[in-house]
Amino acid sequence: MNYAQLAAMVLTKCALYDPYLTDPTEEQARAWAEQLEIHRLDNPDDLKAAVTKVYSEHNAPWRPLPKDITDAARKIRAERAQTAAPTPEYQALCDTKAGEHLLNDDGTVAEIDGPPMSAEEAKRRIREQLSRFGRPPAETTGDVESQMRDLAQRQRAAAPPRPLHEPDTTTASAEGHDWQPVTNEDVR
User: Fold this and answer.
1) 30 class by beta-carbon count within 10 Å (0-12 exposed, 13-18 middle, 19+ buried)
2) Which residue, among 109, 145, 106, 105, has the nearest Cα to 128 in the 3D structure?
3) CB burial class (10 A; 0-12, 13-18, 19+) of residue 161?
4) Theoretical Cys-Cys bridge with 86: which of 51, 90, 162, 170, CB 3.0 to 4.6 Å?
């Protein structure tokens, strides 16, 4: 179904709830279709449930607007997404990204199959990789936390200082801006 057909379906269901609404016109369906497309609402079941939800929450007399229906449909879609199990494709993607990787001797990434390794095994492999590239393992230069603190301090020391205050934007600056502030006198 395209968005115009979905919008006509929504408007028809609204007309079933409210006998004072007229049958949807093509122009009206196209206008509502724009709103459905903005939010990518293409599931007919979500849209039908949104109409039911909106009409169950409002008293007569009331006229639905596209925002009422799209908000309800988006909420229904979000609730379904939170409770849905991951698709097999998504799970396969996660599994490939969670694979263990080490570097080969030539620096390319090598994937290792097998069960998850213990923390000690992971540390041993990291030390091995570091020594391959001429970097000392953490045990010889202090613990990892102190190395991270030292790195953060060096990065902060190398960074340019932050300005103590915001620049004055009420007058033209030395950078060549030729604008002047607008006053109430200028607006009148």
Assistant:
1) middle
2) 105
3) exposed
4) 90
Note the pTM of the prediction, 2 decimals.
0.48
Does pLDDT of 70 surpass 60? yes
Helices 3-17 and 26-38, packing angle to 10 deg: 110
By DSSP bridging, strand 100-103 and strand 109-112 are antiparallel
Please count the helices (runs of H) and the strands (runs of E) in the chain: 9, 2
State how far the Cα of 67 lies from the Cα of 61, in Å rounded to an integer: 17
H or E stretch covering 109: strand 109-112
Can you read off the two tokens belonging to residue 155?
Answer: 């990065």
Element (H, E) at 12: helix 3-17
Residue 103 corresponds to which amino acid? L
Q: Across residues 53-82, what is the average pLDDT?
A: 90
First-to-last C-alpha distance (Å) of the chain? 53
